[in-house]
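worker-3 :: picked NAD(+) diphosphatase
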Amino acid sequence: MPENSSSTFSLTTEPMLSRSPIDRAEELRRNTDALSAGWSTASMLLVDHQGRVRIDEGRVVLVPAVDVSEDRADDAVFLGVVDGKHIWARSVGALSGELADLRLMGQVLDDDSAGLLVTAVALLNWHRSASFSSIDGSPTVISSAGWSRKSTASGHEEFPRSDPAIICLVHDGDDHVLLARQPVWPERRMSVLAGFVEAGESMETCVVREIREEVGLDVTEIRYLGSQPWPFPRSLMIGFAAEADRNQPLSFNDGEIAEAAWFSREQVRTALALGDWTADGDAPLLLPGSISIARAMLESWAAN
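worker-3 :: tokens ->
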């Protein structure tokens, strides 16, 4: 098979939310003396309950931590170290000024800002849903600078969870890719297929099962492409490519897909050039925005 075939393509760009050069400084999370000493020069990222932050010219706005709390705040989470200074995040009820979230602004944020925001949103989302121990039902308190919670009854420690989900670009090994639309999406908005990994299941087995359940196709030649955090609320998207027979009938077996169809490489290139799901006009096909790993997968396949 020629080296530039669909079967051998790889991601040509790093998924947008995988850009995270931040030093997470794990060794500091339980060092209360070091964290307290660094508080006077630390910065704080404030995040409202909708996951929005203040932005300014492609960067998230950080404020001095001491302006938020004179001493280290118990409800703040430690994100890491940038330029020798500690960076924290805290959830607040409301913010003023120019606000944006990852879905709207992820593609224009610089790498540091993207890394800080995706980590902050993921951690704070987890804390909002982990107030009680899953083991004994007792209230929990923040520990390890926001990277765990402990039961007030037993001391049992729980950690932030990420739910693995596969996302798979199914192609025919030649010049066509399968795209699908969920029932809740407006017409013409299509993407690649995705689904959560079940208990006791490998990622490759999940690819086979999800594609068969959603569109009735049998896939082969499964290859890993890359991954991206997706903190809405706590997923990790694990990207694959796989081949299927374009002549095999499509069937929508689990109700998660409203329609699916094969599109040529040229049709995908045209849709990518139009923009994303928000593009105006009567285009027959609209594709996900650049914040999604699906976009990077489709761009890489189309460029082959």
